[in-house]
Amino acid sequence: MDTRRAPVAGPDLASVARPLADRTRASFCMALLDGRAWTATELARHAGVAASTATEHLNALVGGNLLAEERQGRHRYVRLAGPHVAELIEGLAAVAPAGAPPPRSLSAAGRRRALAHARTCYDHLAGAVAVAITDTMTERGLLDWGRGLRLTGDGEAWLGRLGVAVPAGTRRPLVRSCLDWTERRPHLAGAVGAALCRHALDSGWIARVGTTRAVAVTAAGRDALREQLGLPEDLLPPR
Amino acid sequence: MDTRRAPVAGPDLASVARPLADRTRASFCMALLDGRAWTATELARHAGVAASTATEHLNALVGGNLLAEERQGRHRYVRLAGPHVAELIEGLAAVAPAGAPPPRSLSAAGRRRALAHARTCYDHLAGAVAVAITDTMTERGLLDWGRGLRLTGDGEAWLGRLGVAVPAGTRRPLVRSCLDWTERRPHLAGAVGAALCRHALDSGWIARVGTTRAVAVTAAGRDALREQLGLPEDLLPPR
DNA sequence: AGGGTGTTTCGGCGGGTGCCGAAACGTCCG
DNA sequence: CGGACGTTTCGGCACCCGCCGAAACACCCT
Description:
The structure is a homodimer.
Chain A (H helix, E strand, L loop, with lengths): L12 H8 L2 H10 L5 E2 H8 L3 H13 L3 E6 L2 E6 L2 H13 L10 H12 L1 E3 L2 E3 L1 H12 L3 E2 L5 E2 L1 H10 L13 E4 L6 E4 H13 L3 E3 L6 E3 L1 H11 L10
Antiparallel strand pairs in A: 1-3, 2-3, 4-5, 6-7, 8-9, 10-11
Helix pairs in contact in A: 2-3, 3-4
Chain A binds a DNA duplex through α4.
Protein name (chains A, B): Winged helix-turn-helix domain-containing protein
Pfam families (chains A, B): HTH_20
InterPro entries (chains A, B): ArsR-like_HTH (IPR011991), HTH_ArsR_DNA-bd_dom (IPR001845), HTH_Metal-responsive_Reg (IPR052543), WH-like_DNA-bd_sf (IPR036388), WH_DNA-bd_sf (IPR036390)
């Protein structure tokens, strides 16, 4: 019965960590880190487990307030419960070992390459392109990494010229650094990271690849990213 | 044998979350969140488990790179592996339910009250006093919560007058918000939070209570905190 | 209504994990 | 040297947890 507990300790970390302490559930979370909602079967197939198993895992994750669910007809859609969960997972990933051994099949290799090049990470961009964007923004003095990450005045003006609405009045940090797990270097997150990603999607600079979390730079995006940010050619699609 | 895994997924979250997914190990971590090094037996007694059990748990936490250990003679000292682990635990605590039911014994109640009043949280201050400090700093315009937390110019000047050296050249954010698990409201963390805590200890404003993580406001601290920050009287020791 | 499909429930199985106490092992100190 | 003390190893036990398939259920569509 376990009566001996009389901890002066605070919140019950274990109850939050437990749902994440399983390879399959962790794999669900990594998939959901693209910020979209997945159905139970999609996640089951993604992780290679039976649908019934996926159900049980989703119950654990939803019950632990890590995922939010939304029922639509016979579908069960789940997504991360909020930015705080995405940041929690980032925190875990930052401590975690590299993982992901080189892929076996050719198609898997292609899929992985697409992901490593550009993808969404919750509500902002990740991958080589995102890291390059962050780098060039730093070089041009739009971001300052002096003590913690900061958006400079130039950065704010640049966003204005671009027509990116910077959300105000929110408690969310304007800019935040998020460790990119393919590049192992930080990319831009926070309110500005999210707004920039939304702008890139809205303006057709990037587009989702099928139903995956990978995104591709479009022809319009190539011109815009080269012109606005001077991104290196080898990251952009050939003319 | 588990051969079926072929995840495109990234880092292995589960291997990091697993060590934290146990009440006893979590209790160790909450204790270590005071930033100090504890011996194996101290932690065992704190959590109410056998020494042998504590050893196994510590192996798991150290092996998962969450704790750093230091052997001194027959003692095994452990502490959090770094600020990133402290922040990870904060992230978990922010999602976790309140926990900690009201204490049974009178002495436990006293201990808990001391902790709730003022304690260290890794390298900065926590508890009612810390939250009050954060609040008054905000009221006086030293901190700005507009969009994310920011140290104002006035804040920087105020620290200078106080003689608090603000570490420069580091990548660590100057100010960061950390959810206080007794007050359920944020208090000040980050480089400035740490510097302020160190200054308070060095100047004798506060002192550790025995060997616990609780701290008490000294007579000198009472005057300083009232004068420099206008902290409400009911949080300060009576004259 | 009825078939197809996504999801859930239920047993049952195998393995992993946390716990303990006893004994062994080191280190410190008198 | 020898006792005291902190730590570790080792069995052994109980229990929890993740997995599956089959069957039931719920919903959509024709």
